[in-house]
Amino acid sequence: MLAAIGVRMTFGNHLPSLLLGLGAVDVGAEETAHLLRPGPQVALRLATVRALRTHAVASGSFTDAEIDEYCALLADPDLVAVNSPLLSVWGRRPDRGGSVTRGA
After folding, report:
1. How far is CA 102 from the centre of its chain?
2. What's this model's pTM, rounded to 2 decimal places?
3. What is the arithmetic mean of pLDDT over 23-46?
């Protein structure tokens, strides 16, 4: 659904090479995915779906019936699913003259 409103879902995959291209050193990345279970995470997901629903349907990306079905799955008290992966990327500015550069 986020891709339907223009979110570049694979942008994070390009971050390590972007950092390296900017001269960063000690670049690394880690991807994690947490379980999606009833509670605050599902409440946030449902709020996001509600906020994007009109656009998603108007763009033809999803039908109202598909969104209703997804919301029903999320509302299931026995829900256990793998949440969207989160990509963390890091790097640092190279040491210039023996001192560590802090801040921007």
Report:
1. 27
2. 0.66
3. 93
